[in-house]
Specification:
Elements: E1 16-21, H1 25-28, H2 46-50, E2 56-62, H3 66-76, E3 84-86, H4 89-95, E4 100-103, H5 110-120, E5 124-128, H6 135-147, E6 151-155, H7 162-173, E7 179-187, H8 193-208, E8 212-219, E9 243-249, E10 254-260, E11 266-273, E12 276-281, E13 285-290, E14 297-300, H9 311-323, H10 333-351, E15 357-358
Helix pairs in contact: 4-5, 5-6, 6-10, 8-10
């Protein structure tokens, strides 16, 4: 279902009426100046992204913690002075005319909210990653949004970051020949499967462009009986495991996911093809291809865009365009389900002592 587009464009108000549920930093943080230059992916949050898009206005916010709504109003009240404050999501969904709902709650709270919004007839939803913390919840969500023809974009940020997306475009154009392997490395205190791990697994899937079929995996010690999600919504690193996995794709590509907790922060992908290689992380983007005279790989200038837009802002711009019938969704619920399917297989493989298992 990659590239979901509405069969009939939705007629919506102007400006687009947006609402946000869950007001932690990824929802509310203001944009900040950066000295890093073009590789910065600002704006960082949902609010700072929406504030930069003409025709978007936040009409309602919701969080069960009053201090969070108070902080949001203090930060964004002058930008959207008429937004209504709620502490009950069902009341907000029932009481507001909403074009686009942002679900930015903890990882394990997405499913029921997305389903409720689809059943209420909200035309479009921006759902934070992961889509869900179980395949059962993911499938309930997919059934609901497809039944109600709801546009949903799952916020796997790098699919819209200009550098990471350029790698995808060049892979698809054959710039490095046929892809052979994709190695992803995730280090840091929050290298947890459902938290930052879902970002890395998703981008490996995105670059592979194929269904992940089989997995061999091991989790970090102490999680031998971790067969189903029992985290705390993504807050405590000790609540979820890191792990390492080998992934076989239907098109023959082999992927490696290496997510290891530690003090060194790194999120990197290495894509090897028959005619070249890409290496990309937060601070670099390398393109290697064969030299015509020697046949050896040579580092080439990376063909980056001159226009930089933060990944979350790009996701919203695409979702708004899809509402008008002018774009397709780059990260659909079915795309995001594949990341959950890989995590589910990782858990089952580990529980089986590292045996190869089929994805579900």
């Amino acid at each position: 279902m990659t590239g979901h587009q509405l069969e009939t464009p939705v007629s919506h108000s102007s400006p687009l009426r947006c609402a946000i549920i869950g007001l932690t930093g990824i929802a509310s943080a203001p944009a900040e100046d950066s000295l890093r230059g073009g590789r910065s992916v600002l704006p960082y949050s949902h609010a700072s992204s929406l504030a930069r898009i003409p025709g978007a206005t936040v009409v309602a916010i919701c969080d069960i913690v009053p201090a969070m709504t108070e902080k949001f109003v203090a930060q964004w009240g002058t930008t959207w002075p008429d937004m209504q404050v709620y502490h009950d999501a069902n009341q907000m969904l029932a009481g507001q005319d909403i074009d686009v709902l942002a679900v930015v709650t903890p990882d394990n709270r997405h499913a029921d909210l997305v389903i409720a919004a689809a059943e209420r007839g909200i035309p479009a939803i921006m759902c934070e990653k992961p889509l869900a913390t179980s395949l059962e919840d993911a499938d309930r969500m997919i059934a609901a949004v497809e039944k109600h023809n709801t546009l949903v974009s799952v916020e796997h940020t790098r699919r819209w970051d200009p550098y990471w997306h350029q790698v995808k475009r060049m892979i698809d154009s054959g710039a490095i020949g046929d892809v052979i392997s994709i190695v992803g490395t995730l280090h840091g205190e929050r290298a947890m499967l459902y938290r930052n791990g879902t970002h890395l697994i998703d981008i490996i899937n995105y670059y592979a462009g194929s269904h992940p079929e089989r997995v061999i995996a091991r989790l970090e010690p102490g999680f031998e009986d971790f067969l189903a999600y029992r985290g705390d919504g993504g807050h405590d690193p000790a609540s979820e495991p890191g792990g390492t996995a080998y992934i076989e794709y239907a098109n023959g590509i082999r992927g490696i996911y290496n997510g290891v907790k530690g003090n060194i922060t790194l999120f990197e992908i290495d894509v090897l093809g028959t005619e070249g290689r890409f290496r990309i992380n937060s601070d670099l983007a390398e393109y290697w291809s064969r030299d015509d005279s020697t046949g050896q790989l040579v580092l080439r200038p990376f063909p980056a865009s001159m226009f930089m837009t933060g990944g979350i802002q790009g996701a919203y711009e695409e979702l708004f365009a899809a509402l008008a019938g002018n774009a397709t969704i780059r990260s659909t619920p079915r795309d995001a389900r594949q990341a959950i399917a890989v995590i589910d297989a990782i858990l089952r493989s580990n529980h089986a002592g590292g045996a190869m298992v089929e994805t579900r």
